[in-house]
Write a structure and sequence with these properties.
The protein is mainly beta and about 300 residues long. The protein has no helices and 24 strands.
């Protein structure tokens, strides 16, 4: 799914109404919860660098809990909802749909996350960003709704319950151009791969407390080549590192097997940040101009790869 790097993705929860075979029969509330989304161009989508469309293969996990608590209501624990819709709006359905409690005095809240994982246990979501081939599959987000502390019940009728999703990981964008003054052309970058070395790739995220465990498992991250030779992307675990502990390799994969290395300065990758590096590939090295923008601006960096 393409991403617009702004504040939140809104998923709307509405009551599913039932109809008889008579077309003119008024719709009635049966307590069945239906999830849908209508996302405008200036709201966050899941994955990608600059789009705002659902791809039609997303899945989210939903919890219905007792208001003000994390106790599961009606066995609605990590219920998988999926969509086949594409475009700016999507409808989510489930083979095991959620129903409000029959007792209207029992109030409930909602906790949701994306992307869905069957490996979640006791609200702990396992993160692994080593594989960057599918950005949507690793773009962790979370949302809650409690009706301003009052909770929800089956008397909501067809009223909306809005879930605003926030990003929990960090986005890295690398834009590359050739240094034509030193004999390189865009064609020279056609087979280039960009690898981030030295970052931790795993952690655990607690869906209820919104806390991330200490990252672990250092591994090379082969960035996603969104546009070969021009645009590379990665979603990484929030973490801090010292100068030189993390490097970026630009491998041209040409007959000369040219590889240029950029040593990243001391940096903190925080949740919901997007770090953008505009890179000029030079035969004398790679000139890197770094800016951070999008989700939460946090400053700028600069450097040269040799």
């Amino acid at each position: 799914m393409k991403t617009k790097f702004l504040s939140a993705l809104v998923i709307t929860v509405i009551l599913l109404v039932s109809c008889s075979n008579e077309d003119n029969t008024p719709e009635t509330n049966d307590g069945h919860v239906k999830f849908s989304s209508g996302v405008s161009a200036n709201q966050t989508k899941v994955g990608g660098s600059d789009g705002n469309q659902w791809e039609g293969n997303e899945a989210i996990g939903i919890y219905m809990v007792e208001t003000g608590d994390v106790l599961i209501a009606e066995d609605a624990e990590n219920i998988k909802y999926t969509t086949t819709s594409t475009g700016a709006a999507a409808t989510f359905t489930s083979t095991t749909p959620i129903y409000y409690p029959v007792d209207a005095t029992q109030k409930v809240d909602f906790i949701a996350y994306h992307p869905y994982s069957g490996s979640v246990s006791s609200y702990v979501y396992p993160i692994n960003v080593a594989n960057q081939s599918n950005q949507s599959a690793i773009d962790l987000m979370r949302a809650t709704a409690n009706n301003s502390g009052s909770g929800y019940d089956k008397t909501q009728g067809v009223s909306y319950v809005n879930l605003a999703f926030d990003h929990k990981l960090t986005k890295v964008i690398i834009n590359t151009t050739p240094d034509t003054d030193n004999g390189l052309t865009q064609a020279d970058l056609a087979n280039m791969t960009v690898t981030i070395n030295g970052l931790n790739t795993k952690a655990n995220y607690n869906i209820t407390t919104d806390l991330l465990s200490t990252p672990n498992t250092v591994a090379d991250i082969l960035t996603k080549s969104t546009t070969a030779g021009t645009l590379y992307e990665a979603i990484v675990v929030p973490q801090s590192f010292t100068a030189g502990a993390v490097t970026v390799e630009f491998a041209l994969n040409n007959v000369k097997s040219e590889v240029f290395v950029y040593e990243v300065p001391a940096t903190t990758f925080a949740k919901a940040e997007k770090h953008t590096f505009n890179v000029t590939v030079q035969r004398t090295g790679v000139a890197v101009r770094g800016t951070i923008n999008g989700w939460d601006p946090v400053g700028a960096v600069s450097g040269t790869a040799k």
